[in-house]
Design brief:
Elements: E1 2-8, H1 12-24, H2 37-43, E2 55-60, H3 66-82, E3 87-89, E4 100-105, H4 107-116, H5 125-134, H6 138-143, E5 167-171, H7 173-178, H8 183-189, E6 191-199, H9 200-208, E7 214-217, H10 243-250, H11 254-288, H12 293-300, E8 309-317, H13 318-328, H14 335-350
Antiparallel strand pairs: 1-2, 2-4, 3-4, 5-6, 6-8, 7-8
Helix pairs in contact: 10-11, 11-12
Length: 355
């Protein structure tokens, strides 16, 4: 049996740094060597920044004995017990390739396994094989603590997403497909790291589809939201179908009913503006009263509406993205997240993914 690394996210350390920079809005600190900051973040236990990207291994099991197979499966089970985000496919599935076990994970999962496998009585074959392959790749070796230095380089992973226009930061579907993975294996092992802007209410819903999802979000504790953008709600510029019924019920003309509706919507958007100003004034007042800047923002953000925007980076296997799209790109979903899901679907189609 032999372990082989068949794919890794290029400049993986720069992707992780990019996620951290989005979270803390510290783009001004980017430099060819600024990735070193992620080691400090991760040492403090803030590991979500490393839950993006992908590494994919193949284990050639042609001719393996039943004893070797049992040992391998026991080790894989231990890996799964340590971190449930590891994924694999085996020849026992008729849709998978034969004589190969494919294993994929993000960096956070790999680090978790490295740190905790000592508690398990398993064969070292699989992990030794993985680490041997990882040691050949400078960015992976550095992230896993196998080397102390890494060449300086610029980051390709700072996207500029807008509402309804997400950015795919990484995708390995194309590469893995070219390597011969089946459609079933591609659903399990290929991942997409998507950078998108949404409103806070819709953002909360995206995290509900959390199976195999890694990523991070703009920190509303550290970042000043005084200039927060308000997302205009979908469809509210059209009068509701039940407005005529309302007019008849209260004894007014349809034109008067439209004026009532317009007044309500204007009041809502005025409240948004007033609330954001109140947030800004509250932060300033709390600071003057001696409250630390971070704590002042933590306290003041409680008044902000769910309609303000946030920026989210999420990484999922293709199978989970399909699940998200199936549930949210539908008339049964909230209109705002419908638009988000459809925008993600459109971005996937552009890179050749059939959904």
């Amino acid at each position: 049996m032999q372990v082989k690394l068949i794919y890794y996210t290029p400049e993986y350390h720069k992707l992780i740094e990019g996620v951290a920079r989005v979270c803390y809005q510290s783009y001004d600190k980017l430099s060819p060597t600024s990735h070193s900051m992620i080691k400090g973040i991760m040492k403090k236990g803030h590991l979500s920044v490393a839950s993006v990207g992908n590494v994919v291994f193949e284990v050639d099991i042609a001719g393996a004995s039943s004893e070797d197979m049992l040992s391998l499966l026991e080790t894989m089970a231990a890996f799964k017990e340590i971190n449930n985000y590891i994924r694999w496919t085996t020849p026992t599935n008729k849709k998978a390739r034969q004589d190969v076990i494919t294993i994929s994970m993000n960096l956070l999962t790999l680090l978790d396994i490295i740190d905790n496998i000592v508690d398990y009585n398993t064969s070292p074959f699989l992990l030794d094989g993985i680490l041997g392959e990882v040691s050949k790749v400078p960015c992976l070796a550095w992230l896993c603590g196998l080397t102390d230095e890494i060449p300086a380089s610029d980051s390709p992973y700072i996207g500029e997403p807008k509402l309804k226009k997400p950015v795919i930061l990484t995708e390995d579907y194309t590469t893995l497909k070219d390597l011969g993975l089946t459609e079933y294996e591609l659903e399990v092992h290929s991942t997409f790291t998507v950078d998108f802007v949404t409103d806070r209410a819709s953002g909360l819903q995206t995290w509900r589809h959390a199976d195999m999802t890694g990523g991070c979000e703009l920190s509303q504790r550290y970042c000043d939201l005084s200039n927060a953008e308000v997302r205009e709600m979908e469809g509210v510029n059209k009068y509701p179908e039940g407005l005529a019924e309302y007019a008849e019920k209260v004894g007014i003309t349809y034109e008067e009913a439209t004026q009532h509706y317009d007044a309500v919507m204007e009041s809502i958007y005025n409240r948004y503006t007033d609330t954001i100003k109140y947030y800004s004034d509250t932060v300033k007042t709390l600071k003057e009263l001696g409250v630390s800047g971070k704590r002042a923002k933590e306290i003041a953000r409680s008044v902000l509406p769910n309609a303000i925007t946030t920026r989210i980076i999420q990484c999922r296997p293709l199978k989970q993205w399909k699940h998200f799209i199936d549930l949210r790109a539908t008339v049964h979903a909230q209109p705002e997240i419908q638009q988000d899901a459809k925008a993600v679907m459109k971005a996937f189609t552009k890179v050749g993914v059939e959904l």
